[in-house]
Design goal:
This protein is of the alpha/beta class. The protein has one domain: 6-pyruvoyl tetrahydropterin synthase/QueD (Tetrahydropterin Synthase, Chain A), CATH 3.30.479. It is built from 3 helices and 6 strands; from the N terminus they run ββαβαβαββ. Strand 3, helix 2 and strand 4 form a beta-alpha-beta unit. The longest helix is centred in the middle third of the chain and has 16 residues. It is elongated. The two termini are 16 Å apart. This is 6-carboxy-5,6,7,8-tetrahydropterin synthase. Belongs to the PTPS family. QueD subfamily.
Length: 141
Amino acid sequence: MFRVSKEFSFDMAHLLDGHDGKCQNLHGHTYKLQVEVAGDLLVDGAKKSMVMDFSDLKVVVKKAILDPMDHAFIYDQTSERESKIAMLLQELQSKTFGVNFRTTAEEMARFIFQRLKYDEKLPISAIRLWETPTSFCEYGE
């Protein structure tokens, strides 16, 4: 079995309501996302000897992750505080992306993995999400 990866980057703002440190405040990150797919090599056709064409992977990740999340305020819809901020931003025609979980690197990595594997049907084996150049989370099943 082969594993191939492609990296992406996107910018997003968030906060962690109830956190006991500075991340309780609105802030942003330039996230680096590494998407790893695994499988056997294709045996025929234009993509012979590939697990997946990197350009095909890019198209799916762009549509499912980057387009909706890049330069957005991602917020936990179960948090009253975060939802109020999102409502104000929406009134001001700013981009938001609501989820039903706390927007930690861990939960976001799991969300991205599940969205790509189950919604987009990609053979994802792992997601690595860097919140800073020195801090990342890896998720796989």
